[in-house]
Amino acid sequence: MTDADGDTDGVAPLRLALDVAVPAPLRPMLAELVATAEVAIELVALADIDPGLVELSDRRLVLALHQEGYDWLVTGNGRMLRNPDVLAAVWKTRMSVFAVDGVGDDPLRTTGALLLDLPAALRRATPGRCEIFWSRPRNPRPSGPWDRFMAAARRRRQEPGDLHEQVKVTDAELTTPWRRHPAPD
After folding, report:
1. Burial readout 136-165 (b: 16 or more C-beta within 10 A, e: otherwise)
2. Helical ranges in 51-159 per DSSP H
3. Which of 15, 23, 165, 174 satisfies CB 3.0 to 4.6 Å to 70 for a cystine?
4. What is the distance between the alpha carbons of residues 31 and 5, in angstroms, rounded to a whole number?
5. Which residues pair with 98 in a beta bridge?
6. Is the dihedral angle over the CA atoms 159, 160, 161, 166 positive or is it negative?
């Protein structure tokens, strides 16, 4: 654990290799946020470990990171975890993997997924255990307000028309000024 002074109380930090297109200016912020997971970490981009790592196949990458002493691979390539060759390397090395899936090559969506999910994954991880965390950010689809309203009525076990009569917005309510004072010019 990292204390208030940034010391790790003698506990070796988890070493996370970052194989993700996180824009360089956002990496310090990501490392700072991940540090709030109450787990001492060292987050290093692949190219900063060794530029040759970015040229390796996924299987060779896992093996090389193990040789370099890394505990985790953080990747934007969720497809790699569908490949038995890669999974065999993960299993043999006992490396944990955090994979973002379904965002393509979009560095901002990948970074957003890491900001949202990586700290919680680190808190839930079992020390010394090989685990895979798979983040699948949603791509929200639109829905109509009446569809959502009908779902709310079903949850309340009410007829949609009856519920609408109870909660409908009147014309007076719609046009009543919300400001207590006139808007500034």
Report:
1. ebeeeeeeeeeeeeeeebeeeeeeeeebee
2. 58-67, 84-93, 107-124, 145-155
3. 15
4. 16
5. 74, 133
6. positive
One digit per residue, the tens of pLDDT, for the chain of length 185 reads 344 444 445 567 889 999 877 777 878 877 777 776 677 788 899 999 999 999 999 999 999 999 999 999 999 888 888 899 999 999 999 999 999 887 777 788 888 888 888 888 988 988 889 999 988 877 667 778 888 889 999 999 999 999 999 998 989 998 888 888 877 77
- Order of strands, sheet of 72-75, starting from the edge strand that comes earlier in the sequence: 41-45, 14-19, 72-75, 96-100, 132-135
Q: Which two tokens stand for residue 95?
A: 């490396």
- What is the distance between the alpha carbons of residues 166 and 169, in angstroms, rounded to a whole number? 9
Residue type, 22: V
User: Dihedral of the CA atoms 133, 21, 65, 81 (nearest 10)?
Assistant: 40
DSSP conformation class of 6: S
